[in-house]
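Query form — protein PfaB family protein

QUESTION: What is the three-dimensional structure of this chain?
INPUT:
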Amino acid sequence: MVHSTLPVSKASVSDQVIKSEMPLRIALLVLPASLDLSKSLDADTLSLETPEVAKQLSVLLPDLHNSTLLQTTELVSIKVDDFEANLTATIESIEQGKLVQISTPTSSLLMMHALKAAQNRIHPHAQLAAMQMQAGSDSAASADACMADACMESALSQAKRKPDSVSKRFDLPELNSTEQFDAVCELIKDLASRTHHRDAAAIGPKQATSHYWFTDHHQARVVAINLTNSVQNRASQSSSSNCISFVVSQGTGFIAPRSIIHANRLQFVVSSDTQAGLIDALGSLKAQLANNSTSESLLTLMRDNLFAFEANGSTDTYAIALQASSVEAMLQELKAMVETLPKVMAEKGQAHSSQSSLQYKTPAGSYFTAEPLGSSAQSGLAFVYPGVGTVYSDMFSELHGYFPSLYSQLEREGDLKSMFQADAIYNLDPKVTPAMPLGDLAIAGVGSSYLLTQLLVKEFDITPNFALGYSMGEASMWASLGVWNDPHSLIEKTKTDPLFTTAISGKLTAVRKAWQLDNRDADIVWNSFVVRSKAAPIKTLLPEFPHAYLAIVQGDTCVIAGCETQCRELLARMKKRGIAANRVTAMHTSPAMEEHANVEQFYHQPLLESLPTDIKFISAASGDTCVSNARGGLDSQVVSRSIADTFCNTLDFTALIHSAQKQGVKLFVELGADRQNCTLIDKIAKQDHQCGGESTDFPCCTVPVNAKGGDDITTLLKALGQLISHRVPLTVTPLIDGINREIALSQLKAAAIMKQIKSEQMSNLTLQGEV
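ANSWER: The structure tokens for PfaB family protein are given below.
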């Protein structure tokens, strides 16, 4: 049966709760506001009222649906009107073994004893460990503060927690009962989604309003909440205050992932073996869009489209990914694709065609290629890892809301806060990130690559055929693709090892040794410059400037590094302008060779017992040599020496890309912050095509998974669209799952509205009958 609360006097409430000294251990499950469990159960059988409700619950709250809890346990439904009394009634009911749904029109919680949740394999979003109430006779601000502190002290004592174990404390004054409950629910959602919200007044217009809630390794998130109110006594014309303090900790469950595609971010895929088939499919989609004007029907259309693609279209020769922000915009995308498709297909087989003429992409993200490069038959997919310096302030601030289980896994594996260098990357001052020391930049760079690799591999089942790295991106490659046994062990070493702090950065002790300087000589003023030039003219002049070096060759530009004065003099001799990086690192210069043995020792890491056999790892240092575990070529020494050779020698990124193309790479997917490698590879391919370079005959296409200044999810969705069109084997299940949740929520809201309308109609009929 379903019960409502009985009236509870405030006096008995306060006395009862204050005397409680044992932790409460109450599991909290956030429910959709429109889900009324009491009306979803048949009063006689306690079974779910309709198959639709059961299906919605299975999608939105699978733990609860899979248990028999709703069918076997009495449910109490409470509508918030007096928060103190409501909460105490809730706790009393839970102590009696009941379930409680407590709600307002905008928020809802299912509460139960933590042991009951565990027995039924329900992962709660949070756990209420303590609730204390206190009343005061003086409403002065200082008295309120003292009362709140005393109340919180009692709550922490009840929760058996020390004050320094609290992650955040929130003091929320002068809210009515509904506002109090809604505010507490929002904080529980933050715990369950691991989201940290920033103070709007403390950030600039381009900064993220929220990001992942990082904590120290193995430290749970704990929230302390104080709700204080002033109460006026009209009879005595005096005022008093009361306070409710809560201690709530994170649970083992998560708020359901946000849907990657929804009514304002549309995606459709059409596929066929022929041009005519594609045109027909585009026409059919246009007609379907005209008949699906509601939000729910549009979501259903997208879901069914993805179902059909995964079931039947994954083996078709061609695929078009269509993306837009509305039905009207999608119709425009369809029109543009129908008009352009024949032109793109006509380019196929033409001798003069470049990859850019064989593909069509729109600003919204729609994409088609007439020459798919990523199929299993092509075996030409490569993951490319960028080097140091690509990370940026607030990167990936939105991803955790879409992939909470992935972040949870990474948090279990190692220190996520250190892996992202979160204190610097998410600092309120955006100038902190660019000024990060070399070691910190390297850690955050590997961390960003590791995250995006796990996202593509584990969420979308994408496996590369090749892997390569730009500079220290080679370390990211070994860390991200299941080679090193414990890549997290390198985090603290990278922050503190002299290799990164003083040898090739900071005081540049390796350079001072190479230049035969002693402690009496002045500090080295080091810089690096990007210059638009081929390598040959620079190499010709280098003998005249012994403390300047050609560090990197990358398409139509090079990077020179060394003594800032000599670098500027070299640029002047060339009559070129260089863009200063203003970063101190001697990587890829001959003085770095002083540290070759140390670099090799630093990266000599134990490998996993089971290594990937289907990925060929290309070393930037070895040129045409391809290291593949399939022929037994991987061991700790091979990996560490490859990194050391790359680290200490000039990096010829152009030669690396040409080598990769000769070995079969056609599609380069960049796994890391921003899209700098994609830009460089595009320039190399364009140069080859225009100048008849050595790789003119090799097809080449790049796919960035992230882009600075862009929306995280939009950029990811565009990347997935490109991969789909290039026929890369992958799953779209995360997209389908997200849409199913959107549909279930839409149906719940619609049902709640209909019930409200019927209730009002019945009320009106009753009133009319009485008249």
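ADDITIONAL NOTE: Residues 2-250 form one domain.
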